[in-house]
Amino acid sequence: MKQFDLVTDEKIKSQLNTKLIGQEIYAFWKIGSTNTFARQRALHDAPEGTVVIAEEQTQGRGRMTRQWESQFGKGLWFSVILRPQDVSPKAGLYTFLAGVSVAEAVEQLCGLRPELKWPNDLLLNGKKFCGILSEADFQNGHIRHVILGIGINVDHKQEDLPNSISESATSIRIESNWRLDRVKLLITVLKRMEKNYELIQTKGFDPILKTWKSYCPRLSKQIKVRQEHTIYEGIFQDLDEHGCMLLKTNDGQMRKIVAGDFA
């Protein structure tokens, strides 16, 4: 048995019957960051739906310039270029599009139900297996493009995880105890993303946010959120129309959390 099967543009195109996402694909053995390359292509008028994927990233990034471990042949490290006709304040909502699409794909293929953790992580059994980095460029108050960077730990065994994250991270293989075909997962995520993107264009973000909340067990629960140097405690009440967390703090105030981490 092969240690891993390579994810190539030929394999993707032979199975992907989408209308928009994946019509143009850049596939690399190794790259610094798929998001960085995707942004360069987007600024040079790459078509909407362009996918950039790599077997390995040497400079994979998460939120707040955190490093994302992207080992060769173990996961899916890819970015998708979207060009929504939308105003700038809605750019952050596309993170939820990506999160829902991955969650639905994993549940469909594996029977595992991921937990969506605000704003951009996916967990299995309380451990992170997927992160999303959404980056946007703007022009005259409107979105010029959105880059959805997605990293999914697929085929890692426990010993493959670096010591620095072995307590907090996991993979689909670890949690399901079987090897999921990475191309099949990628195809399913991209199909879900196209379907959900079409839903946004016809019905807005309400259906996507409703689905996102159904995957978020921390909603309506007591939580702690760290925002810069302050920790707030309260009930995760809801999301607002821009995807910000609405936290009803223990002193009864409703606080909008634009960016933060669970403490």
| Order of helix and strand elements from N to C terminus | HEHEEHEEEEHHHEEEEE
What is the SS-derived class? alpha+beta
Q: What is the total number of structural domains?
A: 2
CATH superfamily of the largest domain: Bira Bifunctional Protein, Domain 2
- The CATH architecture of the largest domain would be 2-Layer Sandwich
Strand order of the largest sheet: 1-2-3-7-6-5-4
CATH class categorisation of the largest domain: Alpha Beta
Describe the structure.
This protein is an alpha+beta fold. The protein has two domains: 9-214, Bira Bifunctional Protein, Domain 2 (BirA Bifunctional Protein, domain 2); 222-262, Roll (SH3 type barrels). 27% of the residues lie in helices and 31% in strands. It is built from six helices and twelve strands. A seven-stranded mixed beta sheet has the order 1-2-3-7-6-5-4, with helices on both faces. A five-stranded antiparallel beta sheet has the order 11-10-9-8-12, with no helix packed on it. β5 and β6 (127-139) form a beta hairpin. The model has no long low-confidence stretch (mean pLDDT 91).
Question: Layout of SSEs?
Answer:
Layout: H1 9-15, E1 25-31, H2 34-43, E2 51-57, E3 75-82, H3 94-110, E4 115-117, E5 121-124, E6 127-139, E7 142-153, H4 172-176, H5 182-203, H6 206-214, E8 222-227, E9 230-239, E10 245-249, E11 254-257, E12 261-262
Parallel strand pairs: 1-2
Antiparallel strand pairs: 2-3, 3-7, 4-5, 5-6, 6-7, 8-9, 8-12, 9-10, 10-11
Helix pairs in contact: 3-5, 3-6
